[in-house]
Amino acid sequence: MMSERVICEKEAVWTDGAGSGVTDERVEDWLYALRHMDTLAIEHEGQPVSYRELAERVASRAAFLAELGVTRGERVAVLMAHGLLFAITLHALRYLGAVTVPINARLSLEEMVWQVDDVEARTLLCDEAHEVQRIAICERLSHVRAWRCAVEMKEGKRAFAPDSICLSDVQSIIYTSGTTGRPKGALLTYGNHFASAVASALRLGMLPTDRWLTALPLFHVGGQAVLMRSIIYGTAAVLQDRFDEAAHRARLLQGDITMVSVVAATLLRMMDDEVTFPAALRVVLLGGGPAPAPLLKRCIARGVPVVQTYGLTEANSQVATLRPAEVSSRVGSAGQPLMSSTVRIVDERGEYCPPNGVGEIQIKGPTLCAGYWQEKKVRSALAEDGWFHTGDIGYLDEEGYLYVLDRRKDLIVSGGENVYPAEVEAVLLTHPSVAEAAVVGRDDATYGQVPVAVLAVHAPYDEAALLSFCRAQLAGYKVPKQLLVVDRLPRNAAGKLLKREMRLWF
Amino acid sequence: MMSERVICEKEAVWTDGAGSGVTDERVEDWLYALRHMDTLAIEHEGQPVSYRELAERVASRAAFLAELGVTRGERVAVLMAHGLLFAITLHALRYLGAVTVPINARLSLEEMVWQVDDVEARTLLCDEAHEVQRIAICERLSHVRAWRCAVEMKEGKRAFAPDSICLSDVQSIIYTSGTTGRPKGALLTYGNHFASAVASALRLGMLPTDRWLTALPLFHVGGQAVLMRSIIYGTAAVLQDRFDEAAHRARLLQGDITMVSVVAATLLRMMDDEVTFPAALRVVLLGGGPAPAPLLKRCIARGVPVVQTYGLTEANSQVATLRPAEVSSRVGSAGQPLMSSTVRIVDERGEYCPPNGVGEIQIKGPTLCAGYWQEKKVRSALAEDGWFHTGDIGYLDEEGYLYVLDRRKDLIVSGGENVYPAEVEAVLLTHPSVAEAAVVGRDDATYGQVPVAVLAVHAPYDEAALLSFCRAQLAGYKVPKQLLVVDRLPRNAAGKLLKREMRLWF
Q: What is the C-alpha R_g of chain B?
């Protein structure tokens, strides 16, 4: 039976049960437990929704979806840019025990069709903005029933009360953003969400009055985690459907936001003037890749409580996060591993690195996904011993603080020397002419590879001055051998640089 | 082997593994992970100790205890009134994998000897204040090695690094305070502490800058929980060795305390004047039995953020706790069950009560202890299906809020009517002449039992006026048939009324 397959997927992957530490534990549904609360659950583009109202909407949406025939364990593709609608849908699918498969709204139609087909979804739920895609996907996949949804719509006749939550059940399948290679669907369980929410709260603190602002896409793990954490904490998620620096800043300046999730590119744009953020803002959580040190230093100098985190889809967001009190003393570190998560550094021979030794970051813990969809053999990434090989390069210092250098596949080896693009990018970004920078490798007859850079610049811009600026701060083999200026750097929906694409330009 | 016995005790008790939900999961030692932090870990009677310093003291104390021959799994009796010394000892024993058995410092020598013997301790650690007891216990139990400890003392030669923590291991055995019957030793695991700390944080909030003040005895579960939570959160515990209202209030008025644990008797004494508590004080956590409504109302009227909780030793403190935002709208309720805990109400025929139906409170969840020391058969209290029968009487309303009426054994049945002493006490306490009140049952030839009261009063006091005050608010069968005035009501070390003792007075 299909419905049992997803639920049992975990056993197929984790023979030793090391995935989450929790197996058959059940808890009361998180949202349902809060259904009598009149406090803020979600604010969407300025519109407040209380827990009572959210729970009512979710219960009647779940009843409606049940009438449509959505069943327990079924994988339902969700293609929505509308944050409130996405949240209602996600929780309603949980009420039904169905699995949410968020489709990246920025994918090409081909990619969407591939993903809906790969995950064997029978049902696709879209918002009005994706009517074209809805019709096109149905044409290509005739067995898929696709429904256009809206926040206000005819709902199910009877109220729907959810079962308790089984922590080992799969809540969603999120395809890795796939800056290279074919995307894989990470199976995120309720236990992953609970462990992740708890570990984040223990590191960053949590108040019942918290309001967490984000414009990160909800179809990525960082955005979805804000929704799930809020429901587990009983706090408010403040959603903006797309990042607009003026709107984001304006919302922050209202003074009630306590937490905000950003990536370096969005933080950079928000920091582009002399605004002072309100005192209630406790944490600016910076994820999505190694952060440029100049940006961090600028934030610290201006009293912005920026806290670097290292996370990934397979670990349901955060793995390590700096403590707010350590922001000034540990610039550039992503902090110690979160409670219950373990990080180790392994060199190319498969041996543990000593403190400060650079190697691959490998992780283990209860936030690690139960495996990949459709992969029975997991010898590679999600290893049998419970360690996940991230493909990221970094080191742990003597006190267990993690420093992330780069993606291993982004590493440039030039004449036998390692060049970490993130380090070169950080130097480029300190130059007043440079707005954005990406460093990639170009094949070279003499050195194997040499670093080259793609830049977005402010006028006026003097190439020779910039290169001499770099030579003053970097070893010669690290200085970019070619500069390419563009209007805006290509990024995926999560704000990550698309280096694969840029490599093709050289 | 002794050391394996304690660790396996859980299996003997919980054949279905329903105890904690976590079985063999390991986490890095909580204190050891914080050993590089210079933030406040403990303030003891005004003396600050940072995490770095605490970890150093604990590591060398653990080395010292290892040299004395303390081994993994060994039960070590700890008789200390000195809070900092108690904390160092507790953490050092954890570093060794030994089990802490806190001895209630207010027990008679006979009771102490019985407990040290019952738990089969080979080692007893005392502070200087308990030198007389140390010598006397050794005389009675010749196989026990007893050591006098101090904060400053010769320590072990080498630094001691702890193993990771196995969440199913027993951390401590706390004997139930035993207001009636023979005490039983509740086996509290690391998993209990972790689940408890997490659930408390999710209900009350937690900030890395929190400072939790308490003068509750550390040998009881409420005091020990403050120590364990602080280490799990990485926040500060502010300890006073005994409750003194002036010292307690003075410390609160310094303005940095965010949380404080109290019982009704201590809160009543603190509230005895017109002090305004600082804004940083987020939660006054009120436990130790049903709280008198007049006290709650007085706190709310004065803006004191009092939050009622229902807890017990076997559940490692809190089971249900009100949310801070619900304080005014749910006066008298102990709130919904904490995250992952479940509460049900069962009547005398063993059937579930409907909402608002009064019956025994039964609980289940990951904070529930692994069983009782030396009890292989657990058909009674810790039932095989994972439900703990608390012996407390209460009800859940339609929205899952718990109202605790009284201990079942304190219930008075008078002429076929139930009289809840807590209800009568609450009325007595609203009278301006009454400082403290306890209502117990006295045998009666006509009614079986009748309610009678023990009072501590303010002068002037008019018995007839007080009784007519009661008659105006209570049904006749609930009005005390006899009043006994004393200087101060007898309480155990946790501040609970010793009703067993008072019953003998009539």
A: 23
Output the 3-class SS for B411-447.
Answer: CEEECCEEECHHHHHHHHHHCCCEEEEEEEEEEECCC
Q: How many residues does chain B have?
A: 506
Burial (CB < 10 A; 0-12, 13-18, 19+), residue A214, is buried
Contact yes or no for A202 and B198 at CB 8 A: yes
Show which of residues 253-312 on chain A sit within 8 Å of chain B, judged by CB atoms: none
The pLDDT of residue B143 is above 50:
yes
Closest Cα in chain A to B167: A21
Longest dimension (CA), chain A: 72
Q: Where are the alpha helices (DSSP H) in B97-220?
A: 109-118, 131-140, 190-204
A336 CB neighbours in chain B (<8 A) are 33
How many angstroms away from the CA of B197 is the closest CA of chain A? 10
How is residue B215 written in tokens? 């003068």
Show which of residues 437-496 on chain A sit within 8 Å of chain B, judged by CB atoms: none
Characterize the bridge pairing of strands A40-44 and A47-50. Answer: antiparallel
Q: Are strands B236-239 and B211-214 parallel, antiparallel or unpaired?
A: parallel
CB A377 within 8 A of CB A418: no
Mutation target to probe the B interface, by most B beta carbons within 10 A, among A16, A27, A385 is A27
Nearest-by-Cβ selection for B27 from A22, A208, A339: A339
Shortest CA gap B296–chain A (Å): 21
Helix (H) or strand (E) holding A89: helix A83-96
- Mean pLDDT for B62-90 is 95
Does residue A2 surpass a pLDDT of 70?
no
Residue A251: partners with Cβ closer than 8 Å, 6 or more residues away: A213, A238, A240, A257
Contact B206 A208 (CB under 8 A): no
Whether the pLDDT of residue B339 is over 50: the answer is yes
Q: Which range is least confidently modeled, A91-95, B142-146, B152-156, B338-342?
A: B152-156
CB contact under 8 A, B201 and A201: yes
Instruction: Tell me the per-residue pLDDT of B47-59, one tens digit each, with 9 for 90 and over.
Output: 999 999 999 999 9
Residue A21 — left, alpha, or beta (φ > 0 → left; ψ -120 to 50 → alpha)? left
Contact A19, A370 (CB under 8 A): yes
Q: Are B22 and A27 an interchain contact pair (Cβ–Cβ within 8 Å)? A: no
Give the CA angle between residues B192, B81, B140 to the nearest 5°: 95
In this complex, which of A25, A36, A206 lies closest to B205 when CB atoms are compared?
A206
ipTM of the complex: 0.82
C-alpha distances in Å from residue B94, one per residue of A160, B100, B260, B345: 47, 8, 25, 36
Please tell me the distance in Å from B13's CA to the nearest CA on chain A: 18
Task: Provide the 3-class DSSP secondary structure of residue B252.
Answer: helix
- The minimal CB distance from A205 to the residues B21, B207, B336 is found for B207
Nearest-Cα residue of chain A relative to residue B282: A207
Could you tell me the sign of the dihedral formed by the alpha carbons of A429, A433, A439, A441, in that order? Answer: negative
Residue A439 CA, distance from chain mean position: 22
Are A366 and A192 in contact by the 8 Å Cβ rule? The answer is yes
User: Is the CB of B234 inside 8 Å of chain A's CB atoms?
Assistant: yes
Cα–Cα distance, A92 to A86 (Å, whole number): 10
Instruction: Write down all domains in chain A, each with its CATH number in brackets.
Output: 29-43+51-163 (3.40.50.980), 194-409 (3.40.50.12780), 411-503 (3.30.300.30)
Task: State the pLDDT confidence band at B230, using cuts at 50, 70 and 90.
Answer: very high
Please state the rounded mean pLDDT for residues B223-251.
95
Q: Is-contact B40 B53, C-beta < 8 A?
A: no
